[in-house]
């Protein structure tokens, strides 16, 4: 299976969001990554469900919704109703993670769990079999355009070993500082889904950049 590319609309042009979503529809992007930030769990505020709902009306790719918020379990139905394919919550924000993951599945979505850069992969040992995807943050969440944290490569390798040893089909997603160089490193380490924001939307040819990221072997 070749890796998936999930461009993050956090880096899109919000005055021309429909144009950018239509560009993603026509591109080789697999998913559309939506970063929801609350200014509490992370030091920034992005956008909420009304925007995602509008995006879902025209998006032809599944919506990968990443909640960087406190108490994400309160919003499971809103995320589903906004059109999400996958709902991703932070381990650090979810004291009752098993219950939250079960509720996401019950709502008809795929369930993901995210780890901040300082959170060890070992904390997933008792939940890994219940999630469809694990997102490794390779920058500190909250802002686009940050420098890639090298330690993330080792975390992806450790996570891949955990998944392989248990014979699971859990996907590994990576978000932060992804460009042509780090994309190759992450694919080699075992990543299945790469989130790219600045690399795609700041390129003169965003569709071409998605093609290049997708073509990496």
Task: Provide structural commentary.
The chain has about 220 residues and is α/β, with parallel strands linked by helices. It has one domain: Aldolase class I (TIM Barrel). It has helices spanning about 15-25, 50-60, 75-80, 95-105, 150-165, 180-190, 200, 205-215; strands spanning about 5, 30-35, 65-70, 85-90, 110-115, 135, 170-175, 195. The chain has an eight-stranded parallel β-sheet with strand order 1-8-7-6-5-4-3-2. β4 (about 85-90), α4 (about 95-105) and β5 form a beta-alpha-beta unit. The model has no long low-confidence stretch (mean pLDDT about 95).
Task: Describe the SSE topology.
Elements: E1 4-7, H1 17-26, E2 32-37, H2 49-58, E3 63-68, H3 76-81, E4 86-90, H4 97-106, E5 110-115, E6 133-137, H5 151-165, E7 171-175, H6 180-189, E8 193-196, H7 198-201, H8 206-215
Parallel strand pairs: 1-8, 2-3, 3-4, 4-5, 5-6, 6-7, 7-8
Instruction: Give a count of the beta strands, DSSP E runs of length 2 or more.
Output: 8
CATH class: Alpha Beta
Helix count, DSSP H or I runs of 4 or more residues? 8
Order of helices and strands: EHEHEHEHEEHEHEHH
CATH level-four homologous superfamily name:
Aldolase class I
CATH hierarchy: architecture = Alpha-Beta Barrel
Q: Which sheet architecture does the biggest sheet show? A: 8 strands, parallel
CATH names the topology as TIM Barrel
Measured by DSSP, the beta-strand proportion falls in 15-25%
Helix residue percentage: 25-40%
User: Mean pLDDT, rounded to whole units?
Assistant: 95
Ranges where pLDDT stays below 50 over 5 or more residues in a row are none
Q: What is the distance, rounded to the nearest whole angstrom, between the alpha carbons of the first and last residues?
A: 11 Å
Taken from the alpha-carbon principal axes, the silhouette is globular
């Amino acid at each position: 299976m070749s890796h998936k590319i999930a461009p993050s609309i956090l880096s899109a042009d919000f005055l021309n969001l429909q144009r950018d979503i239509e560009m993603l529809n026509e591109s080789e992007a697999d998913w559309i990554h939506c970063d929801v930030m609350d200014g509490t769990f992370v030091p920034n505020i992005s956008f909420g469900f009304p925007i995602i709902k509008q995006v879902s009306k025209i998006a032809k790719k599944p919506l990968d919704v990443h909640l960087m918020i406190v108490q994400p379990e309160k919003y499971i139905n809103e995320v589903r109703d906004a059109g999400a394919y996958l709902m991703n919550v932070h381990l650090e924000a979810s004291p009752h993670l098993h219950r939250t993951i079960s509720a996401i599945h019950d709502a008809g979505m795929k369930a993901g769990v995210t780890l901040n850069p300082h959170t060890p992969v070992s904390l997933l040992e008792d939940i890994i079999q219940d999630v469809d995807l694990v997102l490794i943050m390779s920058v500190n969440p909250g802002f686009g355009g940050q420098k890639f944290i090298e330690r993330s490569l080792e975390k992806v390798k450790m996570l891949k070993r955990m998944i392989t040893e248990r014979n699971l089909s859990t996907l590994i997603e990576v978000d932060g500082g992804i460009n042509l160089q780090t994309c190759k490193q992450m694919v080699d380490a075992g990543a299945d889904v790469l989130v790219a924001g600045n690399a795609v939307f700041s390129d003169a040819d965003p569709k071409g950049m998605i093609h290049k990221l997708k073509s990496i072997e």
